[in-house]
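Box 3.1 — From sequence to structure: Protein GrpE
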Amino acid sequence: MEQTVTTEQNPPLADEIPAASPDVEVELESTTGPEAEIERLQVELQQAQETALRAAADAQNTRRRAEQDVEKAHKFGQEKIVQDMVVVADNLERALASVDASDAQFATVVEGLQLTLKSLIDGLKRHNVMQLDPKGEPFDPQFHQAMTQVPNPELEPNTVMDVFQKGYTLHGRLVRPAMVVVSKAP
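Predicted structure (token representation):
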């Protein structure tokens, strides 16, 4: 068989061909006969099957990636509007902090601000936007942005002491980190 393969790949030159004998011709015909053709076709079939399998796997991977992209677009397509709504929540919290709640003339204003803030936060929660208010929790650099560190012997080091601005996540992905003050050892 190997002799046939080398003979087919590198045919001898005309002056290198030995005198032909009837036995040699019969032997060459039998090695290039139907068995060799069957073997060649089986190799081609195997290659075609592997190519088809790879093509099917590529198509399946492409389909799965497209489905994941669509799912992410549905989940995180709201991110820009969420960022805008988070600013509104911050402004409502600042307004509540600046109004004197003990003054009777501002009682209805405070109540209105509280109800508006509550309805905004509840609406965000319905769309899987969660507020991060990490006061008293351990500092987590994935969700918190440390603005400063303050020595505090009453708290363990790397504990959030105060929150300047609350953070928000959308489907577990960070939209805005919480801006915090972190304790450190004295």
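Summary of the box: The helical segments are 2-9, 22-31, 34-76, 79-98, 107-126.
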